[in-house]
Structure formats: C-alpha cells, structure tokens
Design a protein that fits this description.
Length: 179
C-alpha cells in the first residue's frame, strides 16, 4: 500500500484506502519477516504524505493490518463495520482464557462504528442499508463515493502545510480522553 500512496503523492492524487482485513498474522514467522516493522513504517510514512488521505473501514478492521492504513486525514467507518487492535476472540482468549466470553470482549473493546465515533477515534460513520451494505451494494457504493468526494473537496482546499499540521494534531490527540 505504501508504494501506491507514494506514487499518488508524486502525482498529487488524493488517496482512498478501503480497510477490510482481519489483521496482521500473529505468528513468529510473520514477525521474523518484518511484519511489525512494515506496519510501523506505514504509520510513520503515511503521517507525512503530502496529499489528502481518506481511509474507510468497510468491513472488519483488525489489528496492525488495519492500523497500518488507518492513518488518514479522514477516517470513516461503514455503519456495520468494526475496527479494533485485536479481535474479540483474541481478547477473550488473552484476558479470560475463555473463548465463550467473546460478547463480553466485544463490549469491552468498543469496536463498533458508533463507539469509535463517540470516542473520536473515527471522524464519521457512513450510513448503509439496513443489515449491511450487501443488501444494496449500489447504495453503499454511492455513499462511499460521496463521502470520499466531499472529503477530498474539503482537504484539497488546504495548503500542504495545513494538511500535514491538521493530520499531526489529529494523530497527537488520539489516546487522550476524559471520563
């Protein structure tokens, strides 16, 4: 993904990244082949790209695989999508050593679009047909297209410096919260 984004930057083309992945493989072999470094490199490089970046979670956004392309000026989620650093199954196995606690893990992780919008981890939630985009693919595609075009229109009006400053401020605000 990073090579394509850098090419888009070279030709001053705004980027759309669609996130739908269960995440990075959690095995030793993947780590030996540099998976963590690749994710970290993406996070670092994307933060400095000088064209508008729009990422949309369209299904499952899991683990480092999703985080690696989630650095964006606009991060949105389809209404019925999920986004998390770990799957509910992985969380229940680690925290409770009990796979039957998936529902409890899901609630604790707050992985829904509404949860993440409420906590300001995503910018917007894109409406989709009742029960999911698969019910009306054309309507879902139009909603995605409109969101992307509206975002790009707003973001391309900014200078490169302002675009990078806003992205920096947005990233630095992640993780701070009030209870």
């Amino acid at each position: 993904a990073l090579r394509a984004v850098k090419l888009a930057e070279k030709f001053n083309i705004p980027v759309l990244m669609l996130i739908d992945t269960p995440g990075a493989y959690p095995g030793l072999g993947a780590e030996e082949r540099g998976q963590s470094e690749a994710i970290a490199r993406n996070l670092f490089e994307l933060s400095g790209i000088k064209v508008p970046l729009v990422s949309i979670v369209i299904g499952e956004g899991g683990s480092g695989g999703a985080l690696a392309i989630g650095v964006a000026d606009r991060l949105a989620m389809m209404h019925y999508s999920v986004f998390s650093v770990i799957s509910p199954e992985g969380c229940s196995a680690i925290l409770w050593n009990d796979p039957s606690k998936v529902e409890q893990a899901t609630k604790a992780l707050k992985i829904t679009s509404e949860d993440l919008k409420r906590s300001s981890l995503v910018d917007d939630v894109i409406d989709e047909p009742l029960i999911g985009a698969h019910r009306d693919k054309e309507a879902a595609a139009v909603a995605l297209k409109n969101y992307y075009l509206d975002s790009v229109k707003e973001l391309t009006a900014l200078s490169k410096e302002e675009l990078l400053n806003r992205r920096y401020e947005k990233l630095m605000a992640l993780g701070s919260f009030n209870e």
